[in-house]
Structure formats: C-alpha cells, structure tokens
Amino acid sequence: MSSEKEQRKSLALVRTQTMERAQGNAVPIEFRTLSIQVTETHRSNKTGELKASKGKGKGKSDEDLGSETDFFATVDFHKLTPAEISLRFNTNETLGLEQAEAERRLGANGPNTLDTRKPNYFKKVVGYLFGGFCSVLWIGVITFFVCAEPPLSDPPSVTNLALGFLVIFVIFLQASFSAFQDFSTARVMSSILDMIPADCIVLRDGQQVKIPASNLVVGDRVHLSLGNKVPADLRLIQASNDTRFDRAVLTGESEAIEASTTATDDNFLESKNVAFMGTHVVQGSCIGVVVLKGNDTLMGRINKLTSGRKEKKTIIHQEISRFVRIIVYLTVVLALIILVVWGAWIRPTYPDFLPTALLLVTLMGCVVAFIPEGMPICVSLTLLMIARRMRANSILPKALTTVETLGCVNVICSDKTGTLTENKMFVTNLAFLDCESTPEEACEKIEKETKPQSLPRPDDSAQVLALRQLQLAALLCNNAKFDQETIERPVAERTVHGDATDSALLRFSAQLADCTTLATCFERTNEIPFNSRNKWMMAVYQGSTAQPQVIKTLFGDEMTSGDKSASEKGTQLVFVKGAPDVLLPYCTSFLNGSTNAPQPLSNEWTNELSRIQQAWSRRGQRVLMLCKSRYNPYFADANGANGSSGNSALQEELTRQGLHELCIIGLVGIMDPPRPEIKDTIAACRRAGARFFMVTGDFGLTAAAIANQIGLFTANREPDTYEDIVDPTRKGNKINEHGSFEDLGEYEVGRPRFREGTSLVLTGSDLSRMSPGEWDLVCAYEEIVFARTSPEQKLKIVSEFQQRDGVVAVTGDGVNDAPALKAADVGVAVVSGSDVAIEAADLILLGGFDSIPIAMRLGRIVFQNLQKVIGYLLPAGSWSEIWPVLINTFLGTPLPLSSFLMIIICCFTDAFPCTALVMEQEEFDLMAQPPRNAKKEHLITGRIYLQSYIFIGSVMTIFSNWLFFAYLKEYTGLSFRDLVLTFGEIDPANLHPGLTLEEFNGYYVNTGQCVTFVSLVIMQWGNVLSIRNRRMSILQADPIREKRRNLWLFLGMICSLAMAILVTETPGINSVMLTNPVPIKYWLLPIPCAVAVLLLDETRKLIVRCFPNSIIAKLAW
After folding, report:
1. Alpha-carbon torsion 1014, 1015, 1017, 1021, what sign?
2. What is the pLDDT of residues 711-730, one digit of tens each?
3. Rounded to whole angstroms, how far apart are CA atoms 990 and 514?
4. Hey, is 15 helix, strand or coil?
5. How far is Cα 912 from Cα 1057, in angstroms, rounded to an integer?
6. For residue 784, what pLDDT is reported?
7. pTM (2 d.p.)
8. pLDDT band at 597 (very low <50, low <70, confident <90, very high)
9. Which residues, 6+ apart, have CB-to-CB distance to 862 below 8 Å?
C-alpha cells in the first residue's frame, strides 16, 4: 500500500526524491531518467502494479514524457534476431534495400533529420508591428488619418495625412530592426548546423555506397567503423569483438560501452545491441539496421521534449518591457490630463483654440513627443554591434538579447571534460615499483642511450630495456590507431581513433621513442577486449616473421615468432592492462626498473604500489597497471580449446593462463590536463563577482584534485562535505535561528550571499538526500564541486541557485545537458557538441573557454552603453518634446515644436550620434565590479530619469523654448508675455507693421518650430559628449585620444546636422510638412547652449568625484 502511495506522489514531490525512487511518474527529460522510467514500466507490467498516474496535475510536457516512456517501453527491436529484423523491415541480409524502395520510403516518411523549433511567422510579424511602442503608435496613425479628412479637416489636411504615413514608416522601421535580430539568430544557427558532418555508408542493391545521412530510411544496413558518428538508431547485427560506443553525448558517462549483437537488457535504451543516433564508434567496426530515424530516434524525442519548452524571456527583454510600460503609462496619464483640461476648461472658455481635430492631433503629439520612437532601433544597433564583437572573439550569440544577460551572471556551472580540461587524455607519470619518472624524462633517457628509430638490442642498458617493455605494453595492449593523415604532426597534435584511455597510451608510447618500426616486430594472435565485467584488456602476441629477435631480446628466448611452423611454436607473450585494484590479486612479481629483472611482489612492494596509486589519484590522475604473462597455445589445445578467439572455451583458457602469475611491468598515471588558460579564466570570473562551480560525472577525489590544480579550490584546508551540511557545527560554523550561516552578512534582494573562501564537495547521492534548508547552506559556499552527478541533478542544481537569486550560466555539449542549458539564464554550448545541445543553448563557443570572461565583459558593456543610449535619447526625444505640447495646451501659446519634427528627432537626428555611442569602450574596469543585481539595478532607474529629465532635459527645454520665443520676438514683435494665455486670441496690434495673423501662424510659427528643432539637434551634441562618461571628465576621457577614442561621435554629429538641413531646407518637405529655412543666426546660437549643457554636466561630475558623499553624488546615475 505504501508502495502505491509512493508511485502516486505529485510531480512537485517526486522531483525532490532520489532517482531510484522514481516509479515512472517523474518528469525528467534526459536520457538516464527516461531509461529508468522505461525499466520501471517493464517492472510494473511484470508485477501487476499500477502504471504512473496521469492525473490532473500533469501538464503538456509531462504528458509528452509519458508518451515517450510508453513508446520505448513497447519497442522490441533489440529482442529480435537478425533474420526477424530483416523480415520486419523487408530488407535483404546480403543485398540490403533496393534503391527504388529506399527512394519510395524516403518520399513517404521524410528525411532523417531532427526537427528544429518552427517559428510562427504570423505571430512574429504581429509582434514586430504591434509590440512595444508600436501598439500606441498605431493609434496615432489612425488618429492622423481621421483628422486628415472631412469632417474634422475641411479642406483635407495633407500634413496630417503625411504624418500618418510617416508614423507608419517609423513602425515598419522598428519592425525591420526586430526582424533583423531574428534573422541574425537564424543565420547563426544555420552556420552552426552546416558544420555538422552528414555522410554514411549503406548497403544498397548489394553495393556499399556513401549517401547523405539525411537520406537514410528505416531498413537500411549501415556500415560503421572507427571514428564514425551513428546517423540513426541502429539494431546491431554484426560487430567485431572490440566494438565500443561512446554514449557520453546521451548519458554523460565517459566510459565507452561495448557492443553486442544480442539483447543485454529488456530495456531498449540500455541494451548494448542498439547504437543510438549521435553517439560515436570509438573502437572496432559493426553493421546495423536502421530501426528508428529522425524525430523517432532517442535523440529526436529528447530534442522534441527540450525544444517544446517555452522560450525564456531574457533579462534585457524584461528591462525593455518595463521601460515601455512606464513610458506608455506616463503617456496615457498626460493624454488624459490634457483631455480633462480641454473638456473642463479650454473647450468652454476658448472654443476656437482647440477644435476636435486639433485636440486629437495634440493628443497624438503628446504620444509622439513622450515616446522615444528611436529607442528600439538604437537598442537593436547596440546589441548588433556587441554581437559582432563577440563573434570576433569566437563567441556566437544565437539571440542578440542574450548578450546582456551575461553581464548579470553570478553563478557559472561548468563541465569538467573538454571545458576545464583539454578533453585529451595524456600520460603524465610512469613508475616501476622501484622508481618514478615522467614521460619527458624517460624519453630523454632513451634518446641519450640509443640511436633514433633503433630496435631494442641485448647490449642496451637495463633501464632502457625496462622502459622498452613498458612502451610495448602501452602500444600493443591497445586498440587505438593514429590517423594516417596526421601521422607527420607532433605526437600531441595527431588525431587518434580510439577511446580516451587507449589514445593516451598510444600517444605515450609514441612519445617515448618512435614505435612505427617496433610495432611491426609483433603479431597479435588473440585478444580479450575490455568489458564492464572483467574491467581489463588482454592482448596476445608472437614475434613477427621479419624481426623474430626483438621479442626474444625483451621477453626471453622461449617466445615464439611467426617464422615458426605449427609444430615448433612455443610460448606467446601476454599483455594485460587494467586498474591496480582489479589486477593486483593476480600478480606475483614485478619488473625492477633498474635491473630489468623480475622480483617477487612482497607486502613491502605492494604497499609501495598503493602509495603511488593514492598519490597520483590525489593529483587527479587515473592509474593503470600494465602487466605481462605467458600463454601456451598447445597447452590450450590439450585442454580442448580449439577455434577462434570468439570460442568461449578458448576465452576461458586464455583468461586462465593470461592472468596466472602476472608480472607488473609498471604503472602509468593518465589525466585530462587542465587547459592552460583555465586558471586565469576562473580568476577573472571570480574577480567579476561570479562564483565558479564544477559539475562533473567524475569521482569526487579526482574532481577535487582537478579543482585544486585549476584554482577552483583556493582554501588550504580540506573542502567541506555533505556531513558538514548535515552538521554545520563540525568545523566550528555557527548557524542562526533561520538555519543559515551567521557570517553571511545582510541580505539584499536579488543578490545571492556566500561565504568567501569556503569550499565544498558534493556527490550525486548527496544531492538526492538534501532538503531545502540544506540547499540554503550549500548555496552559501563560494567554491563547489558537484561530482558523480546525473543530468537530472544538473538541472536541479541550476533551479536551486536560481531560486536563491542566482543568475546562472551553464556549459554543456551533450544531449543530456540540453534541459539544463535550456533552463539556465545563459546556456553555453561548444560548437563540437551535439545538435540538441546547440539548439538549447544561447551562446556557442567556437574557441576556448577563456572567451567566457570576454563575453561577460561585453555583456556588461551592453548594459552600460544601453543606459548611455537611453540617457542620450530621453532629454531631446521625450522630455524636451513633451514640454512644447504642455506649454501650448496649458499656457495657450503657439506650439513650439511640431509632431513631424518630434519624429525626425527621435528616429533620425538622434539615431546617428546614438549609433556612435554603441561604439564606446568601458569607462572603468567593468570586470572589477560585482554583477548587476537584475532585481534592483534596472536599465532605467530613477537616477537616470533625474539626469535625463530634471537636469539635462530641463536645461535643453529652457534653451530650446527660449530660442523659439526669441525668434518670434525678433521677427514678429510678439514676446512670450504677448503670447502666454492668449489661446489663439492674439492682439494683431503687437505685430510688426505689415504682418498679419495669417502670416504669423502660417509662416513664422512654423519657422520658430524649426528653430526649436535645430536647437535640440545641436544641443544633443553637448549631451552626447557628456553622457559617454558617467564619472570621468571629458578632459580625462575625450573621444580623440587613443584610450577612449570614438571618432564615430563626430560622424554622428555631422549626419544629424545634414538631416536637420535636409528637413528645413528642402522645398518639397517645406510645403508638405510645414517646415521653413532657419536663419543662420539660429543655427549658431544653439552651439553655446550645447557647450553649456556639456559644462553643466562636467560640473556635476566634478562634484561627484570631489564629494562622493554629497547629495548630488548620491543622486548621480
């Protein structure tokens, strides 16, 4: 009964339990847990227990996972014989498929490709045209069109009609920039997917042919060899004894899986006679029949579950949406105030001042004035320019809006293999039990005492002969091979076909001395490949016909060679390699490295072996032992073991003889060395305020050793463990009444707290037992290694840190990493990773991991520059434009700035210097600052509004409106006093002689509006020169000297001036949009006003620098 209750637990509860307790109703996406669900489904069917409940608590993703579990639980391809496979898929065992039938199946079932997320283009276009400010601007378009025609305008108003079309143009301009962002994302994805190789060899009409993997069909017989990528889910029907697959891309497990041609598990996902799409052949060769292709494969189904998740909204999207809401709310409030004042006061008191058509135009003028229409364009340009910088640093951002999120990252969860390390195993230490050495020292000794490319000779020194035996054991008990195309390169740079361990031993043997000729002196007669049951590999050799003396020189005269007849053949040489713990019980002697003679293995020498093993393991090395023995085939024949190496009796006899009285040749320490740049990378990330964690499938001891080497662990004391979480007082930690560490300091919303200098090692089994309170303690550590973690636990780690104010970046390259990459605030994949990981990630690394700090710095520059862009746009594009509308409405003066000129400022004249601001470098060391608190430090803050509206905006408003009324006074004789509160009832007696009210309203007011426009354009030059520095003076960081050089600013000023001239001096624009040429005097007067804007802000900065605790400094942006 309790078991049934456990199976029926809700999703929220099940996710907190260990993976072993999940009974099919958990909802992970990754391979391992899906496999467990299938196994449990089989069990429940066998025992009659109820299947997982599909109750109301399940969502769409839960139902999808349930359907995938049901599908794989019913698949039986692995249980069928080769003949039954051929019958089911109607394929010939010797001829394969006919080409015509393959083409028919391809046409009926589609290509062998994975679906990517298909965009809803209609929804996207609607979002482009009606999202953000555009929805409000469309109201303006309708209003301008309505006001352009009778009865509101009689005769029809060409100006209002033109304004409507101009606003439409602005909307489409914004939409085009948004569409370009998406186009850039699609182009990046296309360029990445084009890098993925896609050919395979199949049997068609009895011939082996190479075809694109996308043209595979169910029933095709695929031939795979060393290094091939599996193109679909295959049922293996033939496989060499040594065939092994690397399933790390699916399972996250680095150990290669040996192949089988018979079912090894009831679970299709665990059976070794199935090769899954996306995995690699790392040893041997095989033939398989395609049973699942494309989206039906395991990878395809995981891809569908991952891509089906809702797109996460980036932080910059949230910030821009927040800014849009604030501006729209303020616009609506202002429009309502104007409408109420018009209805309650202006309409009854001054019925001719604002007729309905003019009121609507005024309201839309308010909308146009207060909304900075050019901001979306400038934001897109900013993100685009930073994205280009990132690409120059080998980083491809799939979406431009992801770039800024990197600046907020305060937690980085990184894989070990291939990210922190080079993903190339190397032998770093070697030892005979009586001496230790390094490959470099051993190589130097051999080179010093022997001739290049010489074979071992009896007169070589004992130490050299011992090293030669170790070299041969590493070379011959090995199934890895060098790629012949790279054989001329240095050993470390050669391509190797084989698993990681064999590749390391092959490189080691080639590093000691040239082994090309040496390898030809031996012939392999038998082998027992490594498998999960034995955990060792055995290879049997005899001397070659051409060089029979080499084996005798090194291993004794009794060794046989290929030149002997069957009746003369004697003892053969056996090499065995494996972990010391596995092979030590079979060992009775060891090779003395100084004398090249065997010695009995006493307890003293056994303890020495254990000491070496533990010392190397603490340094993060994997220790292998290489041994030798003898094998007598005639003795095997006498015991009835005849036949090939696949014969079970022969295997048993070979094992019995080969493991009898093993002699230890030596030990090798193998490790995946840390990337040379990773130590500085981690230091740079920490300096930037981001905690750096390792999440790996390796053992805790190895992971902790690597962490110490790369500087991830910096404390001198041993790291804490789960026991210190359960009982924090074990090491003197003090806990407060809330269950947190006392020394965490004061809590700040949006910024995670942690204890500096604290380190922790946790394993996957520890994570399965942890409560929310224990997670609170874990998330307070600065340095953490998560070892032996499953993909589901990696996803759990991400979510736990996110719940505690973490902005998390995750790196990964496998299919099993896709859910965590998708869930992270920033998912980072390497270009060599799986298609699904690339699809789920936000950033693609084309180079090394050391580009991450560069990306973080650029992400912070994005935010800094966006703040400068908005701080530049708001004074003229919003604040200084709304005041003319308010002055016109509430003070009854002529309108100082027309709606047309407002739009020109927002979308054109401001856009050019704004684009130049995008090119600004960092003002101070951004990587020395803590990450931005995304919950408190917004893109637009009260301080920016204060700077842009109350300070700079007000100065520009006063100057621009003063120049408007000064022009009217000079050219018409009407001063501000003569115009205020007139509401259209101007006394013509105050006009210059000869002027009429029609000329005043029809020409001089329009020219005065152009004066206001020109003054705002030119004053923005002072604004752009001041806004580029938050604290530094222009004398310290001018745009000319090299350190902060930005000559684009001057080009932007020239372009904005050219646009102003175009608008005011072009006759066609003058007649349609009611603009006029501006007198030269009013082109020059704004220049000292621009200088005044710059000097006023320079004064503010000086006060902030000199008096950092002053009220002005506290209010500074």
Report:
1. positive
2. 999 877 789 899 888 887 76
3. 105
4. coil
5. 10
6. 94
7. 0.72
8. very high
9. 316, 382, 383, 386, 403, 404, 407
